[in-house]
TrEMBL record:
Domain Gfo/Idh/MocA-like oxidoreductase N-terminal: 5-121
Family statement: Belongs to the Gfo/Idh/MocA family.
InterPro entries to which the protein is assigned, alphabetical: Gfo/Idh/MocA-like_OxRdtase_N (IPR000683), Gfo/Idh/MocA_domain (IPR050984), GFO_IDH_MocA-like_dom (IPR055170), NAD(P)-bd_dom_sf (IPR036291)
SUPFAM superfamilies xref list: Glyceraldehyde-3-phosphate dehydrogenase-like, C-terminal domain (SSF55347), NAD(P)-binding Rossmann-fold domains (SSF51735)
Keywords: Oxidoreductase
Keyword Oxidoreductase tagged: yes
Organism name: Blastococcus saxobsidens
Domain GFO/IDH/MocA-like oxidoreductase intervals: 133-247
Keyword NADP annotated: no
GO molecular function, a single term: oxidoreductase activity
Name of the protein in its database record: Putative dehydrogenase
């Protein structure tokens, strides 16, 4: 591994634009290349962000010897094929959420990562936000006792357009993969993997899920109730209930700055922890430090958690009648 971790961006879309702007806050790391299936898009992205090289294919950046780690920000169904090819080439990975379009696809990528011994992490920036780190520390210290239940929601109002990526099945459309991954991952982070998943909701004419309500049951009375929607806006708040208090993570919980700690018998305590930059730097620092230390997984966002989240999403999708597929002929 080079002294400076050299990053490549796969998929120069909106999220990649935001992520790349946070690299000035990441020591010993630099974005050097971008890839798109459109050379013109790759060239424009490279020019905007001062990158050294622009590839007109995903295969091109995978073969680039001067890239250490790839940030995959293409539509969900394309992650699987790109990640497998990159891992076989020895490239470390940060893969946008949802990690893949299907549970089987996620299992295959994780198995390849472990077999290859190559670092791979889901880009769940929420787990690295300073406010979320502080919440986890307080819970670990017993601030609200044992966590017994959670309520988490995240939804936006979007006008249906069958060719837009949010609604097109071939692009991984639907609320679950785009927004539901946040509410499921937040619950999994604090409660672990549920024994039972019950889902209800509705579909768009394209077959993508418009909205979903999930009940996660843990077999010992613990539970999580989760809402996600592309049909209507939701507050984007998380409430974590313990045996001696609760925590309100204020909107939007997936990149919060403030939460309120309610201890039994005490006045509410408002706590603010602001992120660095736009908030993406924290996950970029994690990957960079893991690579420099020779680790193959993150302890904060381990691959086992990614698989658990993907399994919940898959079970919910199946109950709703949603049929996601991994893309082929991506490279």
């Amino acid at each position: 591994m080079s002294a400076e971790i050299r990053w490549g961006v796969v998929g120069p879309g909106r999220i990649a634009e935001n992520v790349v702007r946070d690299f000035p806050h990441v020591p010993a790391a630099r974005p050097v290349a971008v890839a798109s299936r459109s050379q013109a898009r790759a060239d424009a992205f490279a020019a905007r962000h001062g990158l050294d090289r622009a590839h007109g294919s995903y295969a091109g950046i995978i073969a680039d010897p001067d890239v250490d780690v790839l940030y995959i920000a293409t539509p969900h169904p394309q992650h699987h094929a790109i990640a497998l090819a990159a891992l076989r080439a020895g490239k470390a990975l940060l893969v946008e959420k949802a990690f893949t379009a299907t549970t089987a696809g996620a299992v295959e990528v994780v198995e390849q990562a472990r077999r290859s011994g190559v670092f791979t992490m889901e880009a769940m920036w929420t787990r690295f936000q300073p406010a979320v780190v502080a919440v986890r520390e307080l819970i670990a210290d017993g601030a609200i006792g044992e966590v017994r239940s959670m309520q988490v929601d995240l939804g936006v109002s979007r006008q249906y357009d069958p060719v837009d990526r949010l609604f097109a099945m071939e692009l991984g459309g639907g609320a679950l993969l785009d927004l539901g991954v946040y509410v499921v991952s937040f619950a999994q982070m604090l409660l672990g993997t549920p024994e039972r998943v019950v889902a209800t909701g509705s579909l768009f004419p394209s077959g993508a899920d418009a909205e979903a309500a999930l009940l996660l049951e843990y077999g010992d009375g613990r539970s999580a109730t989760l809402l996600t929607s592309l049909r209507n806006a939701l507050p984007g708040q998380a409430r974590i209930f313990g045996t001696t208090g609760w925590i309100d993570v204020l909107p939007r919980f997936h990149h919060p700055q403030t939460f309120v700690l309610h201890r039994a018998g005490a006045e509410p305590e408002e706590i603010t922890r602001r992120p660095v930059g736009a908030g993406y730097a924290h996950e970029l620092v994690e990957v960079t430090e893991c690579l420099r230390a020779g680790r193959t997984e993150s302890a904060v966002m381990p691959l086992a958690d990614t698989l658990a989240v993907q399994d919940v999403l898959g079970r919910a999708a199946e109950q709703l009648g949603v049929r996601h597929r991994e893309a082929i002929d991506v490279l």
